[in-house]
Amino acid sequence: MENMVLILISLALSLFLAYFLSPLVLNESHFGPAWRVLRRNMTAVMLHPSRIKEFSHYRRRAGRVLIGELRRQADRGEPVVVLDSFRYAIFSLLCWMCFGENLEEKTVREIQRVQHDITLHFNKVNYIFPRLWEMIGETRRRREDLFVPMIKARRERIEEVNRRGEESFQFSYLDSLLNLELPDEEGRSRKLTEEEIICLCSEILSGGTDTTVAVLQSIMANLVKHHDIQAWLYDEISAVVGDRETWKRRPWASCPFQGRDHGRPTASPPAHFLVSHSPTEDATVGGYLIPRRTTVNVMVTEMNWNSKVWSDPMEFRPERFLPAEKEIKMLTFGAGRRACPGLGLAMLHLEYFVANMVREFEWTAANREVDMSEQMEFTYVMKTPLKATILPRVR
Ligand code: HEM
Questions:
Q1: Between 334 and which of 153, 199, 201, 339 could a Cys-Cys bridge form, CB atoms 3.0 to 4.6 Å apart?
Q2: Which top-rank group of organisms is this from (predicted)?
Q3: Of 48 and 19, more confident
Q4: Nearest residue by C-alpha to atom 21 in ligand 1
């Protein structure tokens, strides 16, 4: 009887979540088999390494914004609290990549507020917030009010570019979505609706911001804590700066960023679980049968904390990721067909921002202890945001 009640409650909760959140996110079940076309568009068009290179001027601009903001805070002679500056820099960069225009700060901040509220609704759903439906409706309207004019303007801009035969036109994710043809059930093709485009742009903004920001803050906290490693990294950066090829030949310079398959130099990744997975056929893993359609939650943090897999798993020891030592023992970005498509971009952004911040400033702790304990928000974040004293380096 008790089991029956639990099953009914779970069912009701699932329907509730599906119904209430569907206006904000669209998943594989919304698109059916056409979802593969979208995934290909994201990995092979938007996030392909050659495309990522094209966004380098946005990266430089975001880097300047971040360093400028940190410098302003440091000039006041007070310790800097870095979280908001990190979040704004990463978010603006993703916004420019998504919408293709150098959006003004005011617009970026408005989009940031809407995206933040969407994330908040996800968290509040856990407590079945009474005004949830009303709030979701309101957030959805605000998001539409912001995104629809940008979509329209972009559509017109593309038409104008085609008419004039302009060549130098900066690609954006939005362009790829406006171009896309999805197969429908009758074998014809269709364009994406405005609502679908909004949700897909929103997905990349929320998927790429809090995750990267959580890792960025944790890397900087570790460099503040381990001054010797920061000094070593500074020497490496100074030796290779401006020379991407040399950087590539000196893999130890990238160690704090944990190579391709990792993502966080501390013991836990920003998501403690992957998104739930489910095998389409019976499978056997490590001698255990996983029946078809079982919900599988992969506890990635447990892997990182496992002392049978890692020696001193809680220690910050970037050298463990030197190529000679490196093995794939983590699933920070997931694996398989639903693995994170933003892996390459996230690693690049982390390298870029950390390298610039270490090159510009010497970082020391503002408090005696850097508290590395975590708490759950959209991702796992530092419970006490990093506060540091930064001194411009004399070059
Ligand atoms: C350090 C940064 C990041 C970490 C640790 C991270 C981690 C993850 C993880 C664990 C998943 C679920 C994978 C699975 O269940 O197998 C995921 C999915 C996803 N990530 Fe990331 N991510 C990061 C950055 C990014 C960036 C920069 C973007 C986009 C620009 C992005 C976009 C996405 C998207 C769209 C999905 C959903 C994929 C799907 O449902 O098929 N992520 N990420």
A1: 339
A2: Eukaryota
A3: 48
A4: 340
